Amino acid sequence: MVGSKSFELNRDIDSPNRNIAPVSTEINECEKLVVGGCQLSELAKKYGTPLYVFDEFSLRTACKTYIYSLKKHYPGDSLPLYASKANSSLSLCALIASEGFGLDAVSEGELLTALRGGMKGENIVFHGNNKSFNELKFAYKNNVTIVLDNHHDIELLKKIASDEKPAKLMLRLTPGIECHTHEYIRTGHLDSKFGFDPDEVETVLKELMRYNWANLTGLHAHIGSQIFEVQPHVDLAGVMADILKLAQKIGHPIVDLNIGGGLGIKYVKEDNPPSIEKWIEVISNSVVKACRERNLDLPRLMCEPGRSLVANSGLTIYKIGAKKVVPGIRTYLSVDGGMSDNPRPITYQSLYSACLVDKPLNLKSEKVTIAGKHCESGDVLLKDFFLPPCESGDFLAVFGTGAYNYSMSSNYNRIPRPATVIVSKGGVDLIQKRELPEDLLQLDVLPDRFIPKN
Ligand code: LLP
Which residues are catalytic? Predict the structure, then answer.
């Protein structure tokens, strides 16, 4: 295996979130990049660019590591749920369901995708701070567990759920723990649009006892995303165990404790997130300890990984086009995608790693800035990045794009979304077709009076 300056190969094969590139990534004898046994430049030629590529081995490894770690470190029952907001498609839902995961959804679209992808309603939880009547009805009909986020949810469910078929519910708490990527704060009240404030939880729990249509069986909290520390989740276990005790005392048969998602991933060399197993170990130990200290039976432990399950199994291939040298300032290389297929750099100033797929080694590097093709100066994917000399037509792989890229993509400038393929052992399957400009007109309506008469 050949080393490289811009990304490491197979650093921690059991924990894909600690590898910038998918774990099956290799450099072949012709020094070209290969993922899942497929040479990336061949995929780009066959399916066009930009192209989202998933490595099935990485994805399944991440799933298996979550399942295995929960079994190893948590003595009670457990169910990991895929936070499908990270990337929702029929194939990803089917693959992740086949590994024994449940799923978290936040809209009818995500619910529908999960159900059609083969997830059982019983293994889906439905979140959201402003669920509509129709969304709640759809979730209820499909036996999905509904996460009560506010009083509006309760009022709508009164009109939907019946005493004969009570709605299965979880209660979302605002736990007073706020994470900013590398540090966190604890406060009594949080400025968050999600969940019930700790002060009102008791009243809500008592109110729910009065409703025969309500079957509250779980508690939920989520404290943030791309978190590298484990201490916030240790603290969270104590906060949730207190509420668990209170809820049981009031009379609710709480059996599920859902601690949300948030485990960080490696986007660039400097990132050093905990492994999946370490994260699960810490969470398991904290929940066990918090429950023992309060004489509580162990609940079924749920967690909701999104990014750490799918991000590093995915990458995006672009084709390099125009080059602009601003003497003494910067060299821009423009690619055939950008902020519409990856809005994270312009939205969060997120950093990524990349390499030329047919020249993956950073020999004789030059400093370039990779720009997208959208009409926006800030449409830059990687700023001041080192690449070997390259020319128009070369393919570039940007790593770590499996989460929150496709799911946050847009058609800005009426640019169609890329296709997605999944690779495994030298084989490739198309799992999402490329949008065509014609597709973008499908929902447009042109009233007769706007059509020129002659
Ligand atoms: N559960 C709940 C209730 C959530 O709100 C989230 C993420 C997750 C689980 C999954 O968190 P993860 O394991 O992926 O960190 N668009 C942003 C990320 C927003 C995350 C929102 N909630 C980004 O691109 O960085």
Answer: 375
